[in-house]
Amino acid sequence: MSHMDDMDRRLLSALRDCGTDRRVAAAARALSWSGEHGALWLGAGLLGAAVDRQRRGAWLRGTALTAAAHLASMGVKRVVRRPRPGAELGGEPLVRTAGRHSFPSSHAASAAAAAVAYGALRPAGARLVPPLAAAMCVSRLVVGVHYPSDVAAGAALGAVTARLGAHWMAGGARW
């Protein structure tokens, strides 16, 4: 086992232990459930488009970038095919997953993309979305379905996807 694998397992074990508190476990489950297939973030973008008519197009393009980050992570998962953490790391996961591959975390990809994209649209979004996105990322460790490196890679993929599309999101022609 490499040093990185060892560190991944130790960090996961420590965060997974937080799930023994039923309140923490309930919050982590709720975040994980709401983030399935990027639902929370896609819904937030559509709500932003409905409420903020002046920037409807930007909200919709930000939502598209969030969806693109999620889809990109799904594509990488199919190539990398890293198995999810096993029961040897502290028992069964606290949630069921849509797939059996963990790298990168799609929850983290869509959360980070939303934090970058929606944070650029509303001052409140810049204060509210990043902490919620971070909590979403940590929840995947607490429920025991991702290694920290899965979450870090997913968050990087999501942030880069949204950042690359920032000009397009703002109404520019490039994507």
TrEMBL record:
<dbReference type="GO" id="GO:0005886">
    <property type="term" value="C:plasma membrane"/>
</dbReference>
<dbReference type="InterPro" id="IPR000326">
    <property type="entry name" value="PAP2/HPO"/>
</dbReference>
<keyword id="KW-0472">Membrane</keyword>
<keyword id="KW-0378">Hydrolase</keyword>
<keyword id="KW-1133">Transmembrane helix</keyword>
<keyword id="KW-0812">Transmembrane</keyword>
<dbReference type="GO" id="GO:0016787">
    <property type="term" value="F:hydrolase activity"/>
</dbReference>
<protein>
    <submittedName>
        <fullName>Phosphatase PAP2 family protein</fullName>
    </submittedName>
</protein>
<feature type="domain" description="Phosphatidic acid phosphatase type 2/haloperoxidase">
    <location>
        <begin position="60"/>
        <end position="166"/>
    </location>
</feature>
<dbReference type="Pfam" id="PF01569">
    <property type="entry name" value="PAP2"/>
</dbReference>
<dbReference type="InterPro" id="IPR036938">
    <property type="entry name" value="PAP2/HPO_sf"/>
</dbReference>
<keyword id="KW-1003">Cell membrane</keyword>
